[in-house]
Each structure stands twice: as C-alpha cells, then as structure tokens.
Amino acid sequence: MRFGNKVLITLAILSLTVQSAFCADVWVNNLRRTFTENNAIIYEINLRTFGAQDTNKNGIIDFDEAEESGTFLNAISRLDDLKLKGINTIHVLPITPVGKIKALGTAGSLYAASDFDSINPQLVSDKSALSAEAQARKFIDEAHKRNISVIIDLPSCGSYDLYMQRPELFVKDKSGQPVVPADWTDVRLFNAGSETAVNSDVYDLFKGFVDMVIKLGADGIRADVATNKPAKFWKDLITYSRSKDPQFLWLAEASESWTEPVVKDGVFTPYNKLLEAGFDGYYGSYFNLKNFKTGKELINLVLETKANLSKFSEPKAVIGSFTTHDEMSPVLINGTKFSDMIVWLNSTLPVNSYYVDGFDTGDNYIYMWANKDAFKTFTDDDYYFVHRGKIDIFNFSRQPGGKDNDLMLSFMVGNNIKKKFAELVSNGKFVPLRASNPSVFAYSMSYDGKSIIVIGNLNFRANVETTVYVPRLQPSNIVIPIKIDSIPINERGAIKTSLKAGEIQVLLVDDLEIK
Question: How far apart are CA 397 and CA 110, in angstroms?
Fold first, then answer.
C-alpha cells in the first residue's frame, strides 16, 4: 500500500481554512440546497451560555460580580472560531422569552416559551443602545458575513406563564387542567387541532414566530418535537414561510424510533408525514449508535435511512444525530474515542454533520453545582436543575468547553475533509463493505473515480483484527491515509487492519471507484 505523508492531515487544515472571513455584502440564503445535499456542518449553541463570561470560574454567572451571561452581541466574538473549525451552519436554541412560574432552573428552560413573537431579554446586552431586534439581526448578519447560515429553534410547548395568560391555546384533560407533556413539568401542551381542523389561534402564534425570525434574517427553523402537531398545521406554516423565502429550511425533531405521542391520546405525526408536509429533513435515529454492538447495526441504519429518504419526490436529508442537547456527552458514554468516531461518521456518511457547543473540546457537561440549592434565582425555582451530562439549558452558567486539543484537531480536520470532498459525499454511492469481525463496520463513499473507505471498531473495550473486503482493490492502488492510528495492509480485494478499541480509520483511494 502506498501512503501519502501523514503531515497531509495537518496541512489539510491550513489549506482548507485559509479562506476569506467575509463573503459578499448581500446574503443569499441557500440553506435548503446545502442541507439536502448533505453539505451542512451544524453547530448547536445556547446563546445564554455561548458567550458567557465566568471570570471567577465557578461555573455560574454571578451578575453581582459583573460577570456576563451570553448575549447576541458577545456571541459575535466566537464566530471566527466556528468559521476556522469548518462550521457553516449554526442551530440557535430558542430565543423566545422563558417562563418563570413552575420553572426548571434558575433562569428557566429555553423550551418553556412565554411568548412567540418577541426576543428573550436574557439574550440582550444592556451595554448597547441597540434594540433587542437590532442586536439579534446584528448577530445573524455577522454570521452571514462569515458564510455561516443560522437556524432558529421553534419551541414545541408553552410555559405555564403563557397558559395563565391564554388558556384557550392549550389541551385540557377531563378535569379541565392543562396537559403536561411527558415529564416536562415546566410547560403545557398546545392544542394545535387536527388534520381536518387546525387550531387557528395556535397557528397564528407560530406564524408570528415565523414572521419574527424571517425578519431577523434567519435561514431556517428547527421544529422542537414536531411530531406533536398535525401534518396540515406544518404544511400551512411551511408554505407560508416559503412564500417569503423559498430557501427557508425546515428541520423536524423526529425519528423513525419515535412512534408514540408525548401524552396519551395526543397528536402524533410520524417523520414521513412531516416530510410530506414540507420539512426538508429530520433527525433520523443515529443517536442509537451508543447502543450498537455490531457493525451491521450501523450499516443497516444507513441503508434504511437512505431507503426512507428515496421515497420522496423532493430531496430530503437527515442530520448526524449521534449527539444532541438531549443526549449525554459522548465522552461519558465511551470516552474520547466515541467523540472521535462521531466526527468521522458525520464527515463521511450521507448526513449533515451535527454537533453541540463544547463537543469539539470534549466537554462532559458535568457542573459541580448541579441539582443543588441555588444562591440566587430569577424564577420560582431555587434549585440548579440540570440533566446530568447534558449541556445546561436551565441556568445562567458557564460557556461550554473542554480541554481536549487532540479531539479539536480531529474535529477541524474532519469538517474540512467533508468540505473538500463535498461532491463525493453529496453525489457518491454508499457501499457497505463486508468485515470479518462482527464489531467492525466498514463502508465506502465512491464517486467520479475516487473512494473514501471508512473502517470502525464498535468495541470500545478491546482491540480487534479484521479483514475488510473491497471489490477490485489492487496492491497498486494509491491509498492515502486521512485518519489512522495503525497501518492497514491492502491485498488483492481486501484490507487487513488492526483496530484499537473504538478506533475509526478513514482512507482515500484516489484511483478506484467502488461499486
């Protein structure tokens, strides 16, 4: 096997990130096209923590000590860093005001929306004379200058505060009380109507949100728990948004794995009906990777997802939902190797890459003050409520981030490799490759005479030996290592390799298209 110099990995970063920091003055939204071609590299941020300035390093923002939580304006300083790391899309968690009654956490959950057509004052800097809307527009404009698209999160439910103001918007139980969905005790379930009769009051509430974010210059919406509203509700809303911006993206939080409503007898719209209603994409079931023991499980998931997407006349896509704000940090599940594997699966599979703020440096989202009595609160909850191992969305807390520089390097390289081979990932054929070891997955993405071969070990406890069978591979083929810890050996029609526990290898075959 003939290998290129390993220094190519480092040089790839330099050559691919030496780009102009600013694009044209006039921003043209093309996010739908980017997404449906699997070329989005999405970074999820909580603005309340994204630019937070925790100077005393205790993990909580102490306003009495002149510390500052995240705002639209102080988030701008981090945009160049995201650009450098290869990010081209930001998913901003909800920017709507949050409820303070029956709240979770000392700042309130971002998903307990108390209003849908105004901006959360927690995200507005009091150091600027700009209005809340102007500050939000400035943040989005600055992202666009760096060629970064912006998706805004649309909360699914209303806070208890909103219920007290407008009880007619909500589902009631037999005793006339508002329905609590799942175990989300700080919110109440909207009555969005049915397929034959959409609730116009709830629709108008969400329409106001669409108007607001389009006016701010956003490029798309991620719909939280999209499954709990009728398909017609979404179809009407999506059609309305597209009349204003044909490239406006709609991403549904939905999955093949979710088959039940969030409450008994509640509305449930499966992912395929949401896509028929106009959503451009959904989450898929890649978060199940943490439970897989065999390579065949991952390969089957990819094949099933591709088959599901092929049923639609318009292009649809998924995100690499291996880790989201609802998932525990991968370093707590299977260590840094698991995070590294997620990077390279996102970069080489036919998915849109998706990461949470802090993932790239190995944050485990363990907060020392978590779930303890609070010294100060801004809601009726005097408890630092947090989901263990998940990014905090309930309190004024520190900026996410770890100290794993090796992971960050891999993250940067993976994102830039995805960009370099964007055409291959977008147009290439996914080909499963047979591996002799059951814990190993192997596949290739092939297009225009080139192939990327990916081999991974889902056994995070032991090293394995495996043979991967590659049709038409010859010892004379030029194979360039993009990501390896050990040296594989190719034979006629096969690659033999040793994989460390949880290791993933990525190889470029520059003169072979695998079919």
Answer: 13
3-state secondary structure of 310: coil
Q: Which residue has the tokens 């038409």?
A: 472
CA angle 222/223/224 to nearest 5° reads: 110
Nearest in space to 387 (alpha carbons), one of 98, 46, 43: 46
Q: How many helices (H) and strands (E) does the chain have?
A: 15, 19
CB atoms within 10 A of CB 474: 12
Burial of 197 (0-12, 13-18, 19+ CB in 10 A): exposed
CA dihedral of residues 43, 49, 54, 57 (deg, nearest 10): -70
Name the helix (H) or strand (E) containing 80.
helix 79-84
Query: Which pair of tokens denotes residue 159?
Result: 């806070």
Per-residue exposure over 233-262, b if at least 16 CB sit within 10 Å of its own CB, e if not: bbbbbbebbeeebebbbbbbbbbbebeebb
As to burial, measured by CB atoms within 10 angstroms (0-12 exposed, 13-18 middle, 19+ buried), residue 20 is: exposed
The DSSP line for 445-461 is EEETTEEEEEEEE--SS
Using CA atoms, how far apart are residues 110 and 96, in angstroms rounded to an integer? Answer: 8
Q: Per residue of the chain (515 residues), what is the pLDDT tens digit?
A: 434 334 344 444 444 444 433 444 789 999 999 999 999 999 999 999 999 999 999 999 999 999 999 999 999 999 999 999 999 999 999 999 999 999 999 999 999 999 999 999 999 999 999 999 999 999 999 999 999 999 999 999 999 999 999 999 999 999 999 999 998 999 999 999 999 999 999 999 999 999 999 999 999 999 999 999 999 999 999 999 999 999 999 999 999 999 999 998 789 999 999 999 999 999 999 999 999 999 999 999 999 999 999 999 999 999 999 999 999 999 999 999 999 999 999 999 999 999 999 999 999 999 999 999 999 999 999 999 999 999 999 999 999 999 999 999 999 999 999 999 999 988 899 999 999 999 999 999 999 999 999 999 999 999 999 999 999 999 989 889 999 887 888 889 999 999 999 999 999 999 999 98
- Decide: helix, strand or coil at residue 128: coil
* Contact present, 271 and 316 (Cβ < 8 Å): no
